[in-house]
User: Which sequence fits this backbone?
């Protein structure tokens, strides 16, 4: 196979796919865009799938690994047609990293370095907890203050920092894993 | 006369790669399709010996196109193109009548072997 030809095709098509992914994210972010969410998530999934296949064909394993992780990460959201608000940060990061990697291929013709930071971020699920679980979790939080030093502590916001996050319960009880700030 | 093939994949890169492999092996590519819908139209129009269908495609997935093609022609020979991790979809496709599958990234020898098997099996089915 003519590697030069396929490398050029990869750069061209992956760049188009990443632009389409950016448009899909913009569609997901539109307040009235809920009706389009399943289509936008499906587009993101297909583009990631396609980039994975092309990169694997050229032995750009770092790119195919990241695209594959993104594809897997999107799968539950694709099945439900909804992407949780907290998942957008990871999505931006992943698409941005893929853009940088494709640009690096265009510059050097070599496989770019692996992005472990993004792979780790995508280890957190994109899927919001199921509604029932969220309800249960909220009830559990209301009933049970966090444990401090083996004893339960009742949280009382300190008057001088009522609006400050310093008074919020610790992150392990206040937010779901993978939540974005 | 060489066998006539329709290739369907939404990625131009993959279509190009399959076309190179398939024509190098001496088969004739009669049409290329960018999604499942185009694949069904191409099948109707060209009545090829074999269709290769990517599983993940827009408009109509490879599985949907496979079912439509098999409904149009129960002896149609369809090879699914799949990625690692899509084993359940491959099983679904085989149950729906696909005659074989190839896994991406494509290896020329595997693609050619899958095409030969499909043509051979097709002769047995006929």
Assistant:
């Amino acid at each position: 196979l003519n590697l030069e030809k396929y490398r050029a095709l990869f750069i061209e098509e992956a760049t188009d796919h990443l632009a389409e992914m950016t448009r899909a994210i913009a569609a997901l972010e539109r307040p009235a865009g809920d009706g389009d969410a399943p289509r936008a998530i499906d587009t993101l999934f297909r583009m990631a799938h396609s980039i994975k296949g092309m990169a694997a064909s050229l032995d750009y394993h770092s790119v195919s690994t990241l695209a594959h992780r993104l594809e897997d990460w999107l799968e539950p959201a694709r099945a439900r047609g909804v992407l949780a608000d907290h998942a957008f940060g990871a999505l931006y990061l992943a698409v941005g990293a893929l853009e940088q990697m494709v640009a690096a291929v265009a510059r050097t013709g070599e496989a770019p370095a692996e992005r472990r930071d993004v792979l780790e971020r995508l280890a957190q699920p994109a899927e919001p907890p199921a509604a029932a679980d969220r309800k249960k979790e909220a009830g559990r939080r209301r009933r049970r203050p966090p444990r401090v030093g083996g004893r339960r502590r009742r949280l009382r916001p300190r008057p001088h920092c009522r609006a400050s996050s310093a008074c919020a319960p610790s992150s392990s009880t206040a937010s779901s894993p993978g939540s974005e700030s | 006369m060489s066998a006539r093939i329709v290739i369907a994949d939404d990625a131009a890169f993959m279509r190009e790669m399959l076309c190179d492999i398939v024509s190098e092996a001496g088969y004739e590519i009669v049409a290329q399709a960018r999604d499942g819908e185009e694949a069904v139209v191409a099948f109707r129009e060209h009545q090829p010996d074999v269709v290769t269908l990517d599983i993940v495609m827009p408009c109509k997935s490879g599985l949907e196109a496979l079912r439509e093609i098999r409904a149009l022609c129960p002896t149609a020979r369809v090879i699914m193109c799949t990625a690692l991790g899509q084993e359940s979809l491959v099983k679904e496709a085989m149950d729906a009548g696909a005659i074989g599958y190839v896994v991406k990234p494509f290896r020329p020898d595997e693609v050619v072997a899958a095409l030969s098997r499909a043509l051979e099996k097709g002769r047995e089915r006929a």
